[in-house]
Amino acid sequence: MFSCSLRSNEVHLTEGQAAPNFTLQDQEGNEHTLSSYRGKKVVIYFYPKDDTPGCTKEACGIRDTYDGFLDQDIVVFGISYDSAETHQSFIKKYNLPFNLLSDSDKSVSRLYGTEGTFFPMRKTFLIDEKGTVKKIYSKVSVVDHGREILSDFSISK
What we know:
By secondary structure, the chain is α+β, with helices and mostly antiparallel strands. It contains 5 helices and 9 strands. A hairpin with a 6-residue loop joins β1 and β2.
């Protein structure tokens, strides 16, 4: 499924591998299990913290292109260490139309190689209908990320 470095616990997930399955709760306490979205395209974007300048630009960029995600039947999940309450406030303040998941124990961030001491690293994974990682963004332009994801998912049919 995914390989680990022999020198550390850092995960080296690569394109073409099966996306590690997980279950996390969203801002309303509803559980989302990645494998239950088989048959759909899924975007998982890890971000450091709700309501901070870069994270707000990234979330609003995805929000502003969200009709394109709906047109392509793409599910979007933002993941950070923040609580459900913080996620609710962030969603309400910026009218975000997608779910934010809480990875408070950092378990999913470890699976995807985004774990940081205080915040997850900003990284995005595109997962195809079969549950395979199609693309990994290690460097993210927070302003144009929504358009970039839509373009790349359109190309990788």
